[in-house]
Amino acid sequence: MGIIIQKFGGSSVANTEKLEQVAQKIIAEKISGNKVIVVVSAQGKTTDRLISEEKEITDNPSRREHDVLVSTGEQITISKLAMLLHQKGYKAVSLTGWQVPIVTNSEFGNSRIRYIHKATILDLLSSDNIVIVAGFQGVDENLNITTLGRGGSDTTAVALAANFEADRCDIYTDVDGVYTADPRFVKNVKRLDKVSYDEMLELASLGAKVLHNRCVEIGKKYNVPIFVKSTFEKNNIGTLISNEKPLEDLVINGVAKDDNISRITIVGLENKIGKTYELFKLLAENNINIDIIVQAFGETFIKNITFTVKMTDLNRTLKILNANKDKLNCKEIIHAENLSKVSIVGVGIANKPGVASKMFEALCEKNINMHMISTSEIKISVLVDIEDAPNAVNTIHEKFFK
Amino acid sequence: MGIIIQKFGGSSVANTEKLEQVAQKIIAEKISGNKVIVVVSAQGKTTDRLISEEKEITDNPSRREHDVLVSTGEQITISKLAMLLHQKGYKAVSLTGWQVPIVTNSEFGNSRIRYIHKATILDLLSSDNIVIVAGFQGVDENLNITTLGRGGSDTTAVALAANFEADRCDIYTDVDGVYTADPRFVKNVKRLDKVSYDEMLELASLGAKVLHNRCVEIGKKYNVPIFVKSTFEKNNIGTLISNEKPLEDLVINGVAKDDNISRITIVGLENKIGKTYELFKLLAENNINIDIIVQAFGETFIKNITFTVKMTDLNRTLKILNANKDKLNCKEIIHAENLSKVSIVGVGIANKPGVASKMFEALCEKNINMHMISTSEIKISVLVDIEDAPNAVNTIHEKFFK
Fold first, then answer.
1. A256: burial class by Cβ within 10 Å (0-12, 13-18, 19+)?
2. Domains, in order of start, for chain A
3. A274-308 pLDDT, tens digit each
4. ipTM higher than 0.85?
5. pTM of this prediction?
6. Chain B residues 56-75 within an 8 A CB cutoff of chain A
7. Quick check: A83 and B50 CB within 8 A?
């Protein structure tokens, strides 16, 4: 008799009717003989509502108090779901983050899990209870309520799966798996039966927001099989994320895009040891999140460095760079706005000749200009104008998956 | 530098605008040099909303899960109030029941406080924080969330005042004190400057719902001076509830009514030791709450016992009594419905000749029929028809306070 973790997101628990469907999924797993730990998010727009109420009070809330406020959302869901399971004749007990406890560091709003106590949950499971855990939240060692940040409930679920050596961690969501591209704007997308942790990490970071990176990282570290499934479709098998090797003939697993990117080039940075470090230290100190970095050597003693930041960070970044232009000792700072990053992901791309050229061919056929190219072991990214991005994704997808 | 407890009820914290006024009251107390512990309820109709959502799921919720659900209401208020005080430049930290912790027994939905740990709050106070505690909630020794039942936030406030030997416990509400009668339906009511714990207990139990009995009982036991004040009027002095002796010339302190009472008479109960006990044991075992009991002896070996129960309990009570009629060995069970209890309260009523007759005179003048009379050291109650009750209260109030 194994332990199964089931996680249901906000849209899956949005109202009583949807909670009914969630209860059915839980009961089915219970009936099949498994011990079940359920992780839930706040219902529907609850967290948004709490945050908008918070904004009435202050634009700059204490992060500790913010966590006290928003953690009520999941607490409401766990109690309702437990009641619903009782109503259907099943034993169930809800646990908040501090009741488990899920102990985190004190980084309010973006805490990392330190450890999860097992005794309370094991006791409840052994007395035949379905255990319902509030996602997204924990408690620090001074008994302050903490939250795990974006994708926090997924992280809770996979961390529990790792901790209890669960047979599976099922992430129920409003899509029925991971696709070769975003179905909202790409035609003929295909659901993947399997994807590796690394591919999923690249896909997630590229804007295919099915799962947050942190939960995939934990899954990879502890080798937790993660299934992404739909809450509302019956008998869907979903996508399995695991360390299984991909089939040899599978070249790329997905096409993704990430909008609102800007590109900055530091022209003529002095080619001296420490200069590059100095540049990125400056940006890190100012909390500027850098994505791709490309360095192209030019003349002997100078170099150009190009990197991307989100459009929302562009003005701040330029201001910081220009204020430090003398210190950096560079010739010029130029930038391009309103770009999208379009990427293909697949284990072994680096070893497959012709994958990059096939991607570039697709773009060329549609006259789409590439502003930057960056490659890794399992990914090739290009920057294109934001207006070209949907077309780019579609044409690349068609080229590889037709 | 003393400790002051300030408690603000649901209507006082209903929205951001009202929280602003609450913040002003807190800051005024802080500026005057006191250490301040604030207790708050859930905002406005939050608890009602949660309960109506609960009813969508089940009519018979697990009491443990019910407490998990409703305790979120106060948690929302404490975080918002802390943020608002930060916004105004004050140090403030929120604490849920389990963070204090306020340790209760495990009677979910109606828990009793066992003890309150002082260390966390004392630490926060000594580092100049305003401490904001969630009212109404606690935690049992197995780390389950509990709630204190009706009037729970008042109980939290007075219990904290007792525990920290506070100089005062200020209960802020939407009325500016305790009145000689309910201002909503009695003319020319007067606010009382002072009232004793015992009088307040009688007034509260008689339907003057300014404070719940439990908090007054704790106040009396630990001699906590309780001020009832208005959140929204400036400079109101409110009513002080303490053990101060009343002025000699003050005959009655208030007139109160309690609606929806029914009267049951057990006619011809065998006059044998143990029969009365048997009767009330039966009712207690069935959780029937008895208010007034009056016994009138009749023939030598039988007696009549009359008592009152709430209208909502009437049918259940009659059913239980009739099912046990043979066992009780009584002649008849009769009852009267839709009555109100109208009472006058004042320390020393028993020693003041003419008080009862003055009350009866007032009722007689208006042709109001009395269905039962019961007196104690500090109270005289009569049952009247529910339609007569407002008239009864007004005419009695006029007689004593004109």
1. buried
2. 3-174 (3.40.1160.10), 254-401 (3.30.2130.10)
3. 777 888 888 888 888 888 888 765 555 667 788 89
4. no
5. 0.78
6. 56-58, 60-62, 64-66, 68-69, 71-72, 75
7. no
